[in-house]
Design goal:
Layout lengths: L8 E8 L2 E14 L5 E12 H20 L18 E3 L3 E3 L16
Antiparallel strand pairs: 1-2, 2-3, 4-5
């Protein structure tokens, strides 16, 4: 049997030369932040060559597209750069401002 690892998400990706380090985090069962939400703590680090990281991203994008196609995951609208207005055009109603439903503080930042 192979060892398995659970993670609540990626905290930081660091590139140094030809090496990419990906810090995986989990929500602490005991530590809390100032808002009383579970604190994110480092649980494992993945270390890739740049080429292996690029290939991994491609594999994950394909997996994500499969989840989107299956209706399991819904993609968010792109974030609006600071200083511009977040409007979209609708052929029937003209300019509209998109609304984002409130999110649980325990949702992974990788899906915000």
């Amino acid at each position: 049997m192979h060892a398995e690892l659970y993670t609540d998400g990626v905290d930081e990706i660091t590139v140094g030369g030809s090496i990419v380090r990906v810090d995986l985090v989990t929500l602490s069962p005991t530590e809390r932040d100032a808002n009383n939400a579970p604190r994110r703590v480092l649980c494992q680090r993945l270390i890739f060559s740049v080429e292996a990281f690029a290939n991994s991203v491609d594999v994950m994008q394909n997996a994500l597209q499969g989840l989107v196609d299956a209706g399991v995951v819904r993609r968010n609208q792109p974030r609006t750069p600071p200083g511009s207005s977040p409007t979209t055009l609708s052929a029937e109603r003209g300019p509209t401002t998109p609304t984002t439903p409130p999110r649980s503080p325990n949702v992974s930042s990788n899906f915000r």
